Amino acid sequence: MKKRILILSIAAAVTAAVCGFHVKSVSAPAAMPIVVLDAGHGGEDGGAVTPDGVHESEINLAITKRLEQFLRLNGCKTVMVREQDTAIYSADAKTIAQKKVSDLHNRVLLVNSTPNSLLVSIHQNIYTESKYHGAQVFYAATDGSKALAELAQHAIAAGIDPGNHRAVKSAGKSIYLLQHIQCTGVLVECGFLSNPQEAVNLQQSDYQKKLACAISGALLHYLNGASENSEV
Ligand SMILES: [Zn+2]
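Above: the input record for the complex with zinc ion. Below: its predicted structure, written as tokens.
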């Protein structure tokens, strides 16, 4: 009898090995991150400016608000770094330089103090020559950031700007916010305000909606993949 049990056990083990199935451990799905949405600049710090004098801070906020709407419609929890044309520096910051440093510190603090956070920061680019255009996504050194950046870059190019062949770029130490966060994070430079046509596009509500749709789609795709992986 013992011999028969032994043979059956060996047969089961061999079958499992040959067929490749295994018992999948059942674990609770990972909690959905809280997406911190950062509209770059604000208040006295307007950031880059279009040829017509429109500040980046205003365009950033418009796109970020649309992104918030799309993500909430899809059941994501979000936190807005700012909802008005204001910076978020502390009261003891007096000079422009102190306000800028304090504002960045507070943005980092908000991201790092939000439990289970994920950062998407929205900015606009500028260059001395007007011919350059196209969105580019920068990523933090943290887990998942590069994958999220690649999804967002691809979604923008595929859905809005097929001629955009820019590659994602590591932020390294060049972007304070991405350098100091502890969670997954990307910064989307949505386009160049120094390019007259792109500057016009970036101020149009339709174009802003398309950008927000592409970025939120990439984020949902990323979160879906991340939760699937966590179940294995
Ligand atoms: Zn900026």
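Notes for the reader.
The radius of gyration is 23 Å.
The chain has one domain: 31-231.
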